[in-house]
């Protein structure tokens, strides 16, 4: 970790709010390095450092990968915890809005990088749990970095019980929406699928405005699942026998209807169909997705 002290750091302006703290663009006046400073207030009532901050620091210390944001230093004062990160210019949401979408090769490159960073997280038994375009940083040279590990967890088998109020609705996996208390790295893959679809379409695939609306939007494409399609689904806490009957459409059909005659690579649709699967056990893993034919030009380089 590089060395920074608070008196060397000058805040320039606020760039966003993470899950549990405000993020500023800042500069180390000694080294001239531009950094991102995440300021996390400490609890007033002697509870000390929020567990989310401890978790973020400890998980990021385990991860070192070009597609995961680097934590450079941690400074703790009596009132605040400061996390110092490398500074990255954009997030995926802002860039998507600024450019009015991505071209096919940008989409492919960004999705590949996202899967590489995620594969590294999962290899270290870390589930991010809050993947969304705002948490994916993009440098001016087109490097994607996964950020904001405030909700991440390390997992072990058998999977423990986790809270289900994570992941912004539009990117939230159906098992979380149905109240599953046990979930796996597959929840991150569902988020990857929805982000990938959003890059292809330049609009959100399932823009729900409440948990139930989110579920219904998913079921409008995939149909209402039963235990044949997804073993055990009817036992999940929020599954209801009074859900309306949804007829099943092909995901391909939904994508084609939304794409307004824009050409979408059939291999991209094939990959999406293997990631956006209701049953989490049948979704591709990050590692499997990287080997998909859609990424063949990158895989030639990896050999």
Task: Describe this structure as you would to a colleague.
It catalyses: L-seryl-[protein] + ATP = O-phospho-L-seryl-[protein] + ADP + H(+); L-threonyl-[protein] + ATP = O-phospho-L-threonyl-[protein] + ADP + H(+). There is one protein chain. With 303 residues, the protein is α+β, with helices and mostly antiparallel strands. The chain is built from 10 helices and 10 strands. It has helices at 51-62, 92-99, 104-123, 174-177, 186-201, 211-222, 251-258, 266-275, 286-290, 296-302, and strands spanning 9-17, 22-28, 34-41, 71-76, 80-86, 90-91, 126-127, 136-138, 144-146, 153-154. A 5-stranded antiparallel sheet has the order 1-2-3-5-4, with helices on one face. A 3-stranded antiparallel sheet has the order 6-8-9. The longest helix has 20 residues, at 104-123. It is globular. 38% of the residues are buried.
Question: TL;DR?
Answer:
The protein has 303 residues and is α+β, with helices and mostly antiparallel strands.
List keywords for this structure.
303 residues; 5-stranded antiparallel β-sheet; 10 helices; single chain; globular; 3-stranded antiparallel β-sheet; alpha+beta
User: Can you summarize the main beta sheet?
Assistant: 5 strands, antiparallel
Helix content: 25-40%
**What is the string of SSEs from the N terminus onward?**
EEEHEEEHHEEEEHHHHHHH
Radius of gyration: 20 Å
Strand ordering within the main sheet: 1-2-3-5-4
Task: Sum up the overall morphology in one term.
Answer: globular
Question: How far apart lie the N and C ends?
Answer: 32 Å
Tally of DSSP helical segments: 10
* Quaternary structure type: single chain
Low-confidence stretches: 162-166
Indicate the structural class: alpha+beta
What fraction of the residues are assigned to beta strands by DSSP?
15-25%
């Amino acid at each position: 970790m590089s060395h920074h002290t608070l008196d060397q750091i000058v805040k320039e302006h606020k760039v966003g709010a993470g899950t549990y703290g405000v993020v500023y663009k800042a500069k180390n006046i000694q080294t001239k390095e531009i950094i991102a400073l995440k300021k996390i207030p400490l609890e007033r009532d002697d509870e000390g450092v929020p567990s989310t901050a401890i978790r973020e620091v400890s998980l990021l210390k385990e991860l070192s990968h070009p597609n995961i944001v680097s934590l450079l230093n941690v400074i703790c004062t009596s009132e605040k915890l400061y996390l110092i990160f490398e500074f990255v210019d954009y997030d995926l949401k802002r860039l998507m809005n600024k450019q009015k979408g991505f071209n096919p090769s940008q989409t492919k490159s960004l999705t590949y990088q996202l899967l590489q960073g995620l594969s590294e997280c999962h290899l270290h038994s870390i589930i991010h749990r809050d993947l969304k375009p705002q948490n994916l940083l993009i440098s001016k040279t087109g490097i994607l970095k996964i950020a904001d590990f405030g909700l991440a967890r390390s997992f072990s088998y058998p999977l423990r019980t986790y809270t289900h109020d994570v992941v912004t609705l539009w990117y939230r996996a159906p098992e979380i929406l149905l109240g599953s208390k046990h979930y796996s790295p597959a929840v991150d893959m569902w988020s990857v699928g929805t982000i990938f679809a959003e890059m292809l379409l330049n609009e959100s695939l399932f823009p729900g405005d409440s948990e139930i609306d989110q579920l219904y939007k998913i079921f409008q494409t995939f149909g209402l699942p039963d235990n044949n399609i997804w073993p055990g689904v009817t036992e999940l806490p929020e599954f209801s026998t009074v859900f309306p009957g949804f007829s099943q459409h092909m995901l391909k059909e939904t994508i084609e209807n939304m794409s307004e005659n824009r050409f979408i690579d059939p291999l991209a649709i094939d990959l999406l169909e293997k990631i956006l699967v209701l049953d989490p056990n049948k979704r591709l893993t990050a590692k499997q997705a990287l080997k998909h034919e859609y990424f063949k030009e990158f895989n030639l380089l990896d050999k």
